[in-house]
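User: Watch each token:
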Amino acid sequence: MRKGEATRARIVGEAARQAALRGLTGVSLADLADAIGISKSGLFKHFESKDDLHLAVVESVTERFTDMIWRPAQPLAPGRARLEVIFDRWLYWCEDEWPDSGCPINAFSIELDDQPGPLRDRLRKGLEGWRKTLLREFTLLRDPPLSEAEAQAAYFQMKSFILGHSDSRRMMGDADAKRSAKAAFEALLDRTSRAAA
């Protein structure tokens, strides 16, 4: 990696850390420049605007999410084997990969849900792609496959468990939140797998 590319990656990484804590609009260019060890004007050698930086942060976080959660599951058999690894890695992402802030994608979703524009569009595109991936995995959870409505209901519950885990762990200080979330998800998989029997 060339020096300019390495500096850009460091800027995006630090901006992602700050955005996870404060929101994208809360990223301070002065704090960002200080953390990287360059001038504010030096930031704009790598990004045309603050909007350009925000877009790079969303894209970087989305790529990290995919690498951490989907890549380890992809080689496994479709359905339950993949879903179990995905859920476990997703909890790790929320609790251990971002210990100071929790999941930045959740934070970005809350921040951008009523802010139309390219940034929201990029985040939504990534979330829609992830939703389609999970719906496909839920559909393959049993034979005959789940109906579209069943897969959507299962996906909704899975996402609810992830959000509930974050609330319990971060807001309520529940040290047992991960175990509770995993037990709830395993029960969902058990129920959904045998629903056609």
